[in-house]
Amino acid sequence: MSKNRMAVIKQRPLDVPSQDDFAVVAAPMPTPEPGQVLLETVYVSVDPYVRVAIDDRTTTLFGAAQPLDTPLMGKTISRVVESRSELFHPGEHVMALSGWQKFAVADAESLQKLDPDVAPLSWWLGVLGTTGFAAYVGTTQVAPPAAGQTYVVTSAAGATGSIAGQIAGQRGARVIGIAGAKEKCDYVVNDLGFAGCVSHHAEDLVAALAEQCPDGVDHSFENVGGKPLEAVLELIKPGGIVALCGVIGSYNQANRTPGPNLWPLVRIGASIRGFRLPDYQHVREQFIHDMLGWLNAGKIKHREEVMTGIECAGEAYNRLMTSNSAGKIVVKL
Amino acid sequence: MSKNRMAVIKQRPLDVPSQDDFAVVAAPMPTPEPGQVLLETVYVSVDPYVRVAIDDRTTTLFGAAQPLDTPLMGKTISRVVESRSELFHPGEHVMALSGWQKFAVADAESLQKLDPDVAPLSWWLGVLGTTGFAAYVGTTQVAPPAAGQTYVVTSAAGATGSIAGQIAGQRGARVIGIAGAKEKCDYVVNDLGFAGCVSHHAEDLVAALAEQCPDGVDHSFENVGGKPLEAVLELIKPGGIVALCGVIGSYNQANRTPGPNLWPLVRIGASIRGFRLPDYQHVREQFIHDMLGWLNAGKIKHREEVMTGIECAGEAYNRLMTSNSAGKIVVKL
Questions:
Q1: Where are its TM segments located (chains A, B) (predicted)?
Q2: How many CA atoms lie within 13 A of A182 on its CB side?
């Protein structure tokens, strides 16, 4: 009997994913061809874009939705078990796209080698991976604040928002978060150094945000859509840019919720700029350099929630999509 | 009895304006102070932004809504009747902001002199005025197409859209319009030289637009919001920009309709850029130069609908907001 197992999509979630949507099945042990390596998955990343990729009701990032009964996609940190390439040796660690399977093969040339002495391996899926890179691109390329400007980050305690706000702070901006629960607001102000934070449960969110942003909002980083974005648009200043990293608020829906009325953009002369990371690979090296510097200097803090076992796909995606995680979710297989 | 009369806001329209929302009243004859001129209004311009400015239910361009019983605002072409400034002489024509009143005074320094030999005077309210300038800024500054690119213009037969599409065409773009009635589509293709046009009444607007834009949409010019914008976002390409000139579709509403879901911006890496003309005064002279060149060479066509009499404010704004006009509406007082 093969040692290999994978978590596959059993049925397409119609709303927030649950345990019933995924099944763990036995799988044949893959065999590397010349130029390939056999990988054992150590960590798999839990990311919002995957929720989009497994839905067949709307346009995805990838064209067609991921087929049923195939292993759930995901970036991984993997250990080389067997190598048929000069590029890697058994025992080395790589960043791969193996998804939710215990063993996988990959072309050696598609893999990025990781040095465990540089940073804990799981960080390459979070603050040093897609999560941190999205925050970096949004705050340095798409909507970079100047020193002294007011920068609003929605979903401020989330894995991406928390990093985005801290990077904007490193650039000298006065950062105001929007988050849900009081403890999340306390966290971003007290632990992450945001200048202020507003709960999106506030009765009059625009008024509450205006109190924290008396001169208006210069730019913002947006990951969710919905009421917080509407409030930002009411206060945005001429030339203001909303860096739109995602609209997580609508990923679970068959008919995506409408967005904000766009009149504020015309009234004031402001923009919403969607972005995707493949278009910013030219700054990835700089990102790694900057982020390692900030992490090593203790200037940027991040949290990780490590779940365990290939069986927890449903639970992990449920936590991600209900904003119940305390930081970046990674799963240790 | 004074010869002066003005059209004032009697009650705030709750939806599309009607004749009942305005009243024509007698007014005292104004007297110019030193440095001022007395103007007689020849033409007043009918523009969507005025609909926003007279509504007190939402944020306007101007802060508070225009007070009741004051003359409806509007750009005018006016004739100098009496001058207490060296800058102007009686009989000269100027562009002013007198609004819907027969006579008005203005500071001479706030006025722009017009040469009736350069172009018919009313054109300075349309193709050479705000309407044409909005089209120019959108297509040359905010979302300028490169030669060969596919450019979509919604409200394509409208006063602004028709000019925007023709400017994009002058830049070498392949221009596709979205309009309502079949005769509007015929007009933009047969008379204005658009490469194609789709009716927004099409059962599957995305499919109909995709047929006209087989390689996707590079940029677009948007003035309305609603379904046509949603269709454009489904087809927009990486780096694509929607130049957002207005969201006329929601100007009559107390609770502005929601906008499009913003996922397409993230999926593909595209932007919606609102703009306002005061931010582009530095290109106004170039605009006049370019537009006069195109007009004189017969490269850009435009239509004007001249209504007559100060009593027609309600009818004029009704026609504007129901898209029933055949071109730029100006009113001859």
A1: none
A2: 0
Same domain, A164 and A245: yes
Give the structural domain span for A83. Answer: 5-126+303-332
Contact B266 A245 (CB under 8 A): yes
Nearest to B262 among A239, A268, A274 (CB): A274
| CATH label of the domain that carries residue A20 | 3.90.180.10
Low-confidence ranges of chain A (pLDDT < 50): 1
CB-based contact, B264 to chain A, within 8 Å = yes
Residue B292 lies in a domain: no
Structure tokens of B261? 């879901």
Instruction: Using the predicted structure, report yes or no on whether residue B178 has a pLDDT greater than 60.
Output: yes
What pLDDT, on a 0 to 100 scale, did the predictor assign at position A249?
76
**What does the pLDDT look like over B139-154, one tens digit per residue?**
999 999 999 999 999 9
Q: Which residue of B has its CA nearest to A259?
A: B261
Specify whether B266 is located in the same domain as B309: no
Q: Calculate how close chain A gets to B261, using CA atoms only, in Å.
A: 4
Q: Which residue of B has its CA nearest to A253?
A: B261
Helix axes A284-296, A159-170, angle to 10 degrees: 80
Task: Report yes or no on B102 lying in a domain.
Answer: yes
Contacts of A225 in chain B (CB under 8 A): 261-262
Q: What pLDDT does A324 receive?
A: 73
pLDDT of residue B154: 95
Residues B71 and B86 grouped into a single domain: yes
Query: What would you report as the CA-atom Rg of chain A, rounded to the nearest whole angstrom?
Result: 20
Number of domains in chain B: 2
Nearest CA in chain A to B229: A262
Read off the CATH number of the domain in which B234 is found. Answer: 3.40.50.720
| Cβ pair A327, A162 in contact under 8 A | yes
The pLDDT of residue A256 is 77
Taking residue A195's Cβ as centre, other Cβ atoms within 10 Å add up to: 17
Tell me how far apart the alpha carbons of residues B315 and B333 are, in angstroms, rounded to a whole number: 14
Question: What are B246-276's pLDDT values in tens digits?
Answer: 988 777 777 778 899 999 999 999 999 999 9
Nearest CA distance, A277 vs chain B (angstrom): 9
The answer to whether B77 and B121 have CB atoms below 8 angstroms apart is yes
Is residue B206 a part of any domain in this protein? yes
Same domain, A224 and A247: yes
B266·A273 Cβ contact <8 A: no
Question: Are B140 and B119 part of one and the same domain?
Answer: no
Which residues in chain A are contacts of B265 at CB distance < 8 A?
A: 244, 272-274
Q: What is the pLDDT of residues B106-118, one digit of tens each?
A: 999 999 999 999 9
Residue A294 lies in a domain: no
Please answer yes or no on whether A244 and B234 come within 8 Å at the CB atom: no
Residue where a domain stops, chosen among A238, A262, A278: A278
Query: Are A154 and A253 found together in one domain?
Result: yes
pLDDT category at B40 given cuts 50, 70, 90 is very high
What's the CA angle centered on B243, arms B233 and B248, to 5 degrees?
85
pLDDT of the residue at A49: 87
pLDDT of B60 reads: 62
Contact B100, B72 (CB under 8 A): yes
Residues A118 and A142 in one domain: no
Return the pLDDT at A322: 87
Do B108 and B135 lie in one domain? The reply is: no
Q: Does A141 touch chain B (CB under 8 A)?
A: no
